[in-house]
Specification:
The complex is a heterodimer of chains A (about 450) and B (about 200).
Chain A (H helix, E strand, L loop, with lengths): L11 E7 L11 H14 L5 H10 L2 E6 L3 H4 L4 H8 L7 E4 L5 H14 L5 E9 L5 H9 L14 H16 L3 H15 L13 H6 L2 E3 L2 E2 L8 E9 L1 H9 L8 E10 L9 E2 L17 E2 L5 H14 L4 H4 L2 E3 L5 H10 L8 H6 L27 H5 L3 H17 L2 H5 L11 E7 L5 E9 L1
Parallel strand pairs in A: 2-3, 2-4, 11-12
Antiparallel strand pairs in A: 1-7, 1-8, 4-7, 5-6, 8-13, 9-10, 12-13
Chain B lengths: L1 H17 L25 H8 L4 E5 L5 E2 L13 E5 L4 E9 L12 E7 L7 E5 L15 E6 L1 H12 L12 H8 L8 E5 L2
Antiparallel strand pairs in B: 1-2, 1-3, 4-5, 4-7, 5-6, 7-8
Classes of the chains: A alpha+beta (about 450), B alpha+beta (about 200).
């Protein structure tokens, strides 16, 4: 594999923690919930918390706070409350925000602190407390993350936007609602074995289709739920790793971050261009001779992010080179669209990709037959659809689950190894903001 | 009295020290209301256009890319955009039927949302589709011709202004009184929608 040289020191992802995502976390305030996730991250290093703080303070430690909505929290400057409750003051910190991709962006900003040499240890912590408002008020808050002068006032809201996107995908490529439902079956069934997940259900395609219609063709079970939750990730430099080891931390398998990529697209779907496909290294212009791109059926930001990350990590065949993917499946439809952006299949073939069974895990009974034996597990954790989507924590949660996969520690954390991808060496996690406005792709490799 | 206070203090001590763990999380409600005053800024001509039952888009003066939803600057080349009238008729690019929505719109469900394409435009326009039973909406809607319809209340507002002798076609700059009147028209994007073209 030919890697594109990038400046910067190596960055290692050494530990992570997740609070159980749940509808409403009344027993803890948002700040204490963050502390809970960080506690787990520190315990996994076998370090007393006090010792961990000492290392941060003496070895150029710092933090990044990840949360999406001040409306939900009803608290401005929530980041500093997360910082102080964890004993991180006076270390440097700042808040990161980018809609649904907030967590993924936060992880990459922490990466940059280490790669640039500004810090040797960086804690990326994130949370969201969506239970503070009732569900449809929550939908309204999220809808405020679309153009409030042009899109929101006509009754626009996110499930409606994604529904319009997939309706066009269906028209353009013949994608079916059953193919979308298969994604829901997969992710809910995976989550059945993940104690951190919010919805652990054994469903059939029929269950998904019969469930209440939200915005045609998306039913309740095509859509992720709102959650309370927090997650923390620890990224370090060589020096930081050494400081941890010297202090007696138990370093389990270390994951090196080998690729990061990020892309953007216009806030309004209406403004998305109808131009040429952003080609991956192995694609040809003639593959997409008649495709108007990205229109509203594809996420140009996702493709751009994947292209950057693949070039940096030297990935030329994701199906071969990757062992698993955790991607942002706020909607079953967006999981299918994302297969295509990530180049797991050609644009237009996402529906068939799931139908063949490629993104399913081996050894789990999904109650349906598959045409292909080829596998690249996508969302082995259950994804957002089943784990929940406490926005600022989500992208970090995907990082933590990915780390545990590559450390071979799924059984240690989940109590059962059903979701462990055997010999997982290289993984990709993907974070995505409303209708594909900000998308991040991060690739990690067992060092 | 002192004895009473001492007893109370004891209970309090018990409550805090002995039983703190068994206290359930205490919840409270906080009602919060806010009124924003927001300007449409450089997009104002689009909204004023709705009062004249015209959809205005913008066109890049250097590369001619045309935006069905107005953009002040071209996203392709960075050029400045000028106002243009959109065609009277467009085609449905995609749609959905919303059975739920933001709290503010729940009472209006089910409703149809559409993205509409216009001849000669490189971008789309989002709006409601009215005049069609949402239960009849299916994939065959894509490609169907639609035309804009406008909130009749806008006409009344316009009439009011005409009575006050505001002539939009006049080329000289509006007087301060006229400007103040227009600013209070309170036109929103929801003051127009699409209907099937018969």
């Amino acid at each position: 594999m030919k890697k594109k040289k990038r400046a910067g020191s190596p960055v290692y992802f050494v530990s992570g923690g997740v609070s159980k995502f749940t509808k409403a976390r009344l027993d803890l305030t948002f700040a204490a919930m963050i502390k809970e996730a960080t506690d787990q991250m520190v315990e996994d290093l076998d370090l007393p918390y006090r010792k961990f703080l000492e290392i941060l303070r003496t070895s150029r430690g710092g933090t990044k706070a990840s949360y999406f909505s001040d409306h939900f929290t009803r608290q401005l400057m929530a980041g500093i409350m997360g910082q102080d409750i964890q004993g991180f003051c006076p270390l440097p910190s700042n808040r990161v925000e980018g809609g649904g991709a907030t967590g993924g962006i936060c992880f990459q900003e922490a990466y940059k602190e280490i790669a640039s040499g500004a810090l040797d240890l960086c804690v990326a912590f994130g949370f969201e407390t969506m239970s503070h408002v009732r569900t449809w008020k929550g939908n309204e808050f999220i809808a405020l993350a679309s153009d409030t002068n042009f899109d929101y006032p006509v009754g626009g809201f996110y499930s409606g936007y994604y529904a319009m996107m997939v309706t066009r995908h269906m028209h353009e490529f013949g994608t079916t609602v059953e193919q979308m439902a298969m994604v829901s079956v997969k992710n809910h069934r995976n989550a059945y074995y993940n104690p951190y997940a919010q919805k652990r259900e054994k469903l059939t395609v029929e269950d998904v289709r019969k469930s209440e219609m939200v915005a045609w063709p998306l039913t309740r079970r095509d859509i992720c739920v709102m959650s309370d939750g927090a997650a923390s990730c620890l990224l370090v430099s060589e020096k930081g790793l050494w400081a941890l080891e010297k202090s007696g931390a138990k370093i389990r398998s270390v994951v090196r971050i080998t690729g990061i990529g990020r892309g953007t697209d216009a806030m309004r779907m209406a403004d998305r261009p109808h131009g040429e496909v952003e080609l991956l290294a192995w694609e040809k212009k003639k593959d997409y001779a008649d495709l108007k791109y990205p229109g509203v059926h594809s996420f140009r930001a996702g493709r751009f992010a994947a292209k950057e990350a693949y070039e940096m990590a030297g990935i030329t065949n994701p199906l071969e080179d990757l062992d698993f993917i955790e991607l942002h499946d706020a909607y079953t439809s967006s999981e299918i669209q994302t297969y295509e952006d990530l180049g797991l299949c050609k644009y237009g073939e996402g529906g068939k990709f799931v139908e063949k069974g490629i993104p399913f895990l081996k050894g789990i009974d999904y109650g349906m037959p598959f045409k292909s034996k080829e596998r690249l597990p996508v969302n082995p954790s259950g994804g957002l659809i089943a784990c929940g989507h406490p926005v600022g924590a989500t992208g970090l949660m995907q990082g933590v689950f990915s780390l545990w996969q590559m450390q071979g520690r799924i059984k240690a954390h989940f109590g059962t190894g059903d979701l462990q991808v055997p010999k997982a060496k290289r993984g990709l996690w993907h974070s995505h903001a409303g209708t594909g406005t900000y998308v991040t792709v991060t690739i990690g490799e067992k060092a | 009295m002192n004895e009473f206070l001492e007893k109370e203090a004891d209970d309090l001590k018990n409550l805090i020290q002995g039983r703190a763990k068994s206290i359930p999380p205490l919840v409270f409600e906080h009602h919060y209301e806010v009124e924003y005053v927001i300007s449409h800024g450089q997009d104002s001509p689009f909204f004023a256009g709705l009062a004249f039952e015209k959809l205005l888009g913008t066109r890049c003066v250097s590369c001619e890319m045309t935006y069905a939803t107005p953009k002040p600057f071209c996203m392709k080349c960075g050029g400045k955009c000028a106002w243009v009238e959109l065609p009277d008729e467009g085609k449905i690019h995609t749609f959905t039927v919303c059975h739920f929505g933001s709290q503010a719109f729940l009472k209006e469900t089910p409703f149809i949302l559409v993205l509409v394409e216009f001849e000669g435009c490189g971008s789309l326009m989002m709006s409601r589709l009215k005049g069609l039973d949402p239960s009849k909406a299916g994939m065959d809607l894509i490609g169907k011709k639609v035309r804009p319809a406008f909130n009749p209340a806008l006409k009344e507002k316009l009439e009011l202004m005409r009575k006050r002798k505001i002539d939009f076609k006049r080329t000289e700059i509006l007087s301060p009184e006229e400007r103040a009147l227009i600013q209070r028209m309170e036109i929103k994007v929801s003051d127009f929608w699409f209907v099937p073209d018969a």
